[in-house]
Structure formats: structure tokens, C-alpha cells
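Quick note —
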Amino acid sequence: FIVSLQKLFHVLKKQLQAKMMMGGAQQFQDGQFVQLNGPVSAATYGPVGSTNNVTQQVNSLVQQGRNQIQGGIHTAIGDPAPGVPKVFKVWYSPSMTYQDGQAVQFNGPVGFA
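Predicted structure written out below.
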């Protein structure tokens, strides 16, 4: 029981280190524990300022049930720039259903800029 609580605390601590960004997004540093919270609308991974699209690879992980990635996202999808500090960003979109002809309002960025 104590080991389970310690493991849970470790996971929660790492999750809190993920920086929540506007638009329902998360940002993780290289090597950081990654908790994926469902299908993503967009994901990038690479050196700061890059827009290397990894959305398909990340959604594939989610579909396989691999929502927790120890040691950083590179352990699951590879390292696009070995030896260079990288950032992994994930954008989530809310799951909503609209009827045909119903007005839709977006309160933030949609897709890639």
C-alpha cells in the first residue's frame, strides 16, 4: 500500500510539472514524464521554436492505451534531434457534438498556427 501511494505521488508530482497553456494544451520538457489525456488535436516535438508535427504518432499511442510515458516522449516516438534540448507540446480539443446548422463558437486557437 505504501509503495502504491509513493508511486501515485510520483506520478501526480510529474503531472503537476507539466505547464498548462492556453487552448487546452500541455508542454513537457525533454525527459519529463508524459501523461496523455485522450486524443489530441495537435502535437509537436523538437527543438524550441520548431513545429515538427507528431500528432499521428501521439494519437497512435493513445489508441494503444499508452497514456503514460516514462522518461520522455522520445522513448515512445524517437528523438528528432539527439543532443539538442527539445519541447513536446500537446493540444487537446474538447469533445462536443453540434447539430447541423447549429452555431459554433471557438474560444481559442483551432489547429496549427
